[in-house]
């Protein structure tokens, strides 16, 4: 269905090609997963299938890409619209109309499909994606998972043979991600649609894939094969694969179910080996409060976003804040930095009330890295950004620069912050916030769009900060990150705290928030591959 | 929640333009206020909960502003009418020889002020009538009814219109982000400092939208011969020129005979051009709004008001243009007033708006929602927030 023949793509002012000599064939009706670190050319490869590369992005394409026999060099994206459906990372950027039903019809209208056919397909798609109740709703009022489903639905209605998706689940909570993936699976099984999908969160998708294409980056050729083959050599892999490698299983398990069926022997080996918990390793945390929240209520408009939240944060703790999209995680973080005024209850951070404290004072007590780190960055170079941060924080010149060097070695000072990768940008924003040395650090959804390497770096950075006595709160959907990093997990639902306790207790008691390792080794309280590796090392 | 009963957006526009045309034919303040009341009443009983439905108040304020400006200018610059009843005298600014005929300050006469009041009111009511169409009809639904040849230009306009609310939301988001970096500054300086990142963000978003639209087939065209394309251009441009000339002739208040025929020929040419141009478009329409009896009644009532007032202007010019020299109290001409009341037909003929269900059915919350509504900016912004 999709053929790449010796394809290379070079962008106008880039020194190295974004793709180099790619040969790839995706047969009809396959779900093909594209993995690799940031900057390896995943988005370029997806764009080449939909025709956006090179017609829209510029650059030079060598070799040929054909989709169902149509050469993308001679066909513009609009001439491929009946064949290829494309959904980008941000569904809101994809919407042209303002209600669900109109959005589903838009693509068909452009293609000139007969009105009665359109009517029928809209109804079918509403049912297929479970959107029937939302048909008249304005798109801006939908939740993240619903928006992503509408975006997929809007490209399904013209019945494309190929579906191209760029990180469809990265912004979604675990339940919404399951929803989207089950829809994709149904399309592949029932309609024979060919799906090409790029995703960083392998633990969510790898078990559904028929083929995996690994783009290692730095000019190395892509590795193509069955998921188990590629995962055996891939530097990026989900925890369940890591566990399989640690236990020496072959073929590697790809899903929790595969792994569980083989895990009884591993569980037996691990009996009597208590998991090394981080809390036990570190010196017993001194219960020195950094911030307290007492029966906090916050209204957004007329809707209560938080209701009766009570929470204490002590020095050196890493707390993961979890819950579905719209549960009030961001609101809680924003209230801690004084962006929302509490409607009831009290908030104190470092002895002051955030919303009544001048910003210059407050940044010395608490710092927030927002969901989109770009909001914090407005200089045109990294150097300028650091100089600004020093002035803002009243720190000695060079403070921020030193932090950036430590967190991001080898970064070019003259790069525009928008040209950095997602991971680099996050770390730059983190350095800017840390310049004022706040004892409390808040991160809102920090792993969105991060590859495994960037995530590992984030884990190291946050651990180091915790050792220096910084308290960190991260709002996240990433259960693996929470298991790896957090001492304590707080789960919010509908603006209320529904669980608060040590990570191992909270995440293992709820299937939605349990990391893969915990699911595999249940009822033993293991959370991460590292713990298991260490225990196996000690046992042998 | 059913969408079917909504009235065709074109019907609302024809009705509102009819009222506006009627307003342009009279300076009688009583008739103008009656027109205003008719438009206001229909908007009040037939508008929906949608964000654009609350723009009527903004148009009323805009109309009042226009009227005030007209009066201020009349006071300062005087009026060409003979000043019989001088109300007060402003100090006159001495102007050089070459500026003869222009006067700043000097005597202010009741006749001049009254004339300015009537003229200003006419313009204000005309604006408000157009505004009422804006608050009754969904701009996006109107776009769906455009002829195929104009569709792409229409999408560009709608996308451009959503650009501004996005920009405002971005500025607010970035200004709160500045607080996170420990900057307390408010006011113009902070807006200027976030201007560059806001524009960068807006451009990125526009490019993303353009890419998304392209991949979904926006701008696919069927091949047509060059001769057809050229004929289309000639017909559309010539037709629009005819429409402009004809409208000018019709509204210019001189009893020229060329207005109506030129308008008709222009309309016909433009329509033919658009129909021909539509052959390039491959688009189809999903659930197009039907044009039924209600649409005929609503648009007909607006057009009837316009037509009857034009007719009345020919036969009773004095009633429609009360004299201001000497100052006399205007009287309400009964027949034209009855014609204006025809504009109330939509208050009955148009379907009652489907109100969005109140969340959770909590009456207290419903009441609070209702009081929040008169702030249109707030609602629309929320609607467009990315």
Structure description:
The complex is a heterodimer of chains A (540) and B (386). Chain A has 540 residues and is α/β, with parallel strands linked by helices. Chain A folds into two domains: 2-235, P-loop containing nucleotide triphosphate hydrolases (Rossmann fold); 283-524, P-loop containing nucleotide triphosphate hydrolases (Rossmann fold), CATH 3.40.50. In chain A, 37% of the residues lie in helices and 21% in strands. Chain A has 21 helices and 19 strands. A six-stranded mixed beta sheet of chain A has the order 6-7-8-3-9-10, with helices on both faces. In chain A, strands 15-16-17-13-18-19 form a six-stranded mixed beta sheet, sandwiched between helices. A four-stranded antiparallel beta sheet of chain A has the order 2-1-4-5, covered by helices on one side. In chain A, a hairpin with a 2-residue loop joins strand 18 (488-493) and strand 19 (496-502). The termini of chain A are far apart. The mean pLDDT of chain A is 87. Chain B is an all-alpha fold and 386 residues long. Chain B has three domains: 1-138 and 290-355, no CATH class; 146-221, no CATH class; 224-280. Chain B is built from 15 helices and two strands. A two-stranded antiparallel ribbon of chain B has the order 1-2. In chain B, helix 2 (29-46) runs parallel beside helix 12 (334-341), helix 3 runs antiparallel to helix 4 and helix 10 (293-315) packs antiparallel against helix 12 (334-341). Chain B is globular and about 70 Å long. Mean pLDDT of chain B is 79; it is low at 356-386. Chain A: Residues 2-243, 291-519 form the ABC transporter domain.
Element layout with pairings:
The complex is a heterodimer of chains A (540) and B (386).
Chain A: E1 2-10, E2 19-26, E3 31-35, H1 42-50, H2 52-55, E4 60-67, E5 70-71, E6 84-87, H3 100-111, H4 115-128, H5 144-156, E7 162-166, H6 174-191, E8 194-198, H7 202-205, E9 211-214, E10 223-225, H8 227-233, H9 239-247, H10 256-270, H11 278-281, E11 289-300, E12 303-314, E13 318-322, H12 329-336, E14 344-349, H13 359-362, E15 366-369, H14 382-393, H15 399-407, H16 422-434, E16 440-444, H17 452-467, E17 471-475, H18 479-485, E18 488-493, E19 496-502, H19 503-508, H20 516-521, H21 529-539
Parallel strand pairs in A: 3-8, 3-9, 6-7, 7-8, 13-17, 13-18, 15-16, 16-17
Antiparallel strand pairs in A: 1-2, 1-4, 4-5, 9-10, 11-12, 11-14, 18-19
Helix pairs in contact in A: 3-4, 3-5, 5-6, 9-21, 14-15, 14-16, 15-16
Chain B: H1 9-24, H2 29-46, H3 56-77, E1 86-90, E2 106-109, H4 110-136, H5 139-144, H6 148-180, H7 188-215, H8 226-251, H9 259-277, H10 293-315, H11 317-320, H12 334-341, H13 345-349, H14 363-372, H15 376-384
Antiparallel strand pairs in B: 1-2
Keywords (chain A): ATP-binding, Cell membrane, Membrane, Nucleotide-binding, Repeat, Translocase, Transport
Subcellular location (chain A): Cell membrane
Function (chain A): Probably part of an ABC transporter complex. Responsible for energy coupling to the transport system.
């Amino acid at each position: 269905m999709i053929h790449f023949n010796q394809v290379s793509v070079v962008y106008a002012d880039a020194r190295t090609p974004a793709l180099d000599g790619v040969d790839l064939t995706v047969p009809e009706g396959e779900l093909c997963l594209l993995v690799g670190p940031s900057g390896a050319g995943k988005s370029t490869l997806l764009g080449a299938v939909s025709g956006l590369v090179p017609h829209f992005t510029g650059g030079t394409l060598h070799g040929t890409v054909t989709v169902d026999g149509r050469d993308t060099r001679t066909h513009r994206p609009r001439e491929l619209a009946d064949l290829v459906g494309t959904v980008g990372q941000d569904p809101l950027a994809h919407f042209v109309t303002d209600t669900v039903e109109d959005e589903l019809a838009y693509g068909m209208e452009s293609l000139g499909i007969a009105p009665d056919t359109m009517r029928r397909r809209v109804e079918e798609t509403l049912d297929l994606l479970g959107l029937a109740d939302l048909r008249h709703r304005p798109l801006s009022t939908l939740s993240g998972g619903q928006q992503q489903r509408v975006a997929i639905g809007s490209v399904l209605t013209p019945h494309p043979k190929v579906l191209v998706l760029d990180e469809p689940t990265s912004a979604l909570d675990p339940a919404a991600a399951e929803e989207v993936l089950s829809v994709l699976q149904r399309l592949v099984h029932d309609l024979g649609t060919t799906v090409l999908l790029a995703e960083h969160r392998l633990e969510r998708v790898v078990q559904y894939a028929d083929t995996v294409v690994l783009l290692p980056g730095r000019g190395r050729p892509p590795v193509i094969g069955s998921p188990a083959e590629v995962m055996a050599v891939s530097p990026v892999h989900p925890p369940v694969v890591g566990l399989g490698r640690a236990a020496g299983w072959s073929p590697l398990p790809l899903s929790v179910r595969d792994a569980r069926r083989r895990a009884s022997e591993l569980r037996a080996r691990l009996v009597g080996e208590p998991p090394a918990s981080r809390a036990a390793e570190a010196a017993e945390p001194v219960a020195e409060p950094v911030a307290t929240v007492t029966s906090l209520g916050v209204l957004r408009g007329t809707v209560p976003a938080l209701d009766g939240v009570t929470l204490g944060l002590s020095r050196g703790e890493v707390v993961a804040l979890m819950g579905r999209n719209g549960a009030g995680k961001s609101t809680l973080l924003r209230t801690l930095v004084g962006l929302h005024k509490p409607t009831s209850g009290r908030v104190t951070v470092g002895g002051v009330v955030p919303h009544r404290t001048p910003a210059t004072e407050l940044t010395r007590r608490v710092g927030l890295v927002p969901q989109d780190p770009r909001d914090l960055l407005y200089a045109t170079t990294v150097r300028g950004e650091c100089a600004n941060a020093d002035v803002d924080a009243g720190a000695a010149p060079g403070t921020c620069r030193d932090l950036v060097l430590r967190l991001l070695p080898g970064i070019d000072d003259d790069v525009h912050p928008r040209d950095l990768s997602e991971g680099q940008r996050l770390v730059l924003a983190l350095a800017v916030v840390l310049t004022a040395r706040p004892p409390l650090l808040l991160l809102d959804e920090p792993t969105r769009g991060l590859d495994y390497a960037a995530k590992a770096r984030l884990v190291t950075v946050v651990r180091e900060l915790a050792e220096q006595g910084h308290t960190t709160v991260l709002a996240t959907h990433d259960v693996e990150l929470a298991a790896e990093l957090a001492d304590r997990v707080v789960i919010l639902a509908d603006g209320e705290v529904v669980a608060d306790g040590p990570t191992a207790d909270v995440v293992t008691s709820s299937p939605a928030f349990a990391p893969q390792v915990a699911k595999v080794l249940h009822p033993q309280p293991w959370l991460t591959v590292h713990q298991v590796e260490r225990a196996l090392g000690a046992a042998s | 929640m059913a969408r079917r009963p909504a009235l065709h957006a074109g019907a609302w526009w024809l009705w509102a333009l009819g009222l506006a045309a009627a307003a342009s034919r009279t300076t009688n303040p009583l008739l103008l206020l009656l027109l205003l009341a008719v438009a206001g009443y229909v908007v009040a009983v037939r508008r929906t909960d949608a964000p654009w439905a609350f723009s009527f108040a903004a148009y009323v304020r805009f109309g009042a502003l226009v009227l005030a400006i007209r009066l201020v200018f009349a006071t300062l610059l005087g009026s060409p009418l003979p000043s019989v009843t001088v109300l007060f005298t402003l100090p006159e600014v001495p102007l050089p020889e070459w500026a003869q005929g222009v006067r700043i300050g000097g005597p202010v006469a009741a006749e001049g002020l009254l004339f300015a009041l009537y003229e200003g009111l006419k313009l204000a009511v005309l604006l408000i009538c157009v505004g009422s169409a804006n608050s009754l009809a969904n701009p996006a639904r109107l776009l769906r009814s455009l002829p195929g040849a104009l569709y792409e230009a229409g999408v560009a306009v709608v996308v451009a219109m959503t650009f501004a609310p996005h920009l405002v939301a971005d500025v607010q988001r970035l200004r709160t982000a500045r607080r996170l970096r420990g900057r307390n500054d408010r006011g113009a300086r902070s807006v200027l400092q976030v201007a560059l990142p806001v524009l960068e963000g807006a451009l990125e978003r526009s490019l993303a939208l353009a890419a998304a639209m392209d991949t979904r087939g926006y701008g696919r065209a069927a091949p047509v011969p060059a001769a057809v394309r050229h004929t289309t251009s000639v017909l559309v441009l010539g037709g629009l020129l005819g429409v402009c000339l004809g409208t000018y002739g019709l509204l210019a208040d001189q009893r020229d005979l060329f207005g109506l025929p030129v308008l008709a020929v222009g309309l016909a040419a433009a329509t033919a051009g658009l129909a021909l141009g539509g052959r390039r478009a491959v688009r189809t329409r999903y659930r197009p709004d039907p044009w039924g009896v209600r649409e005929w009644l609503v648009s007909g009532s607006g057009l009837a008001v316009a037509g009857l007032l034009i007719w009345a202007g020919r036969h009773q010019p004095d009633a429609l243009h009360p004299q201001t020299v000497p100052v006399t109290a205007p009287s309400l001409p009964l027949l034209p007033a009855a014609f204006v009341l025809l504009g109330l037909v939509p208050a009955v003929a148009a379907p009652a708006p489907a109100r969005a269900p109140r969340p959770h059915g909590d009456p207290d919350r419903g009441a609070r929602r209702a009081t929040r509504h008169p702030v249109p900016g707030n609602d629309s912004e929320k609607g467009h927030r990315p």
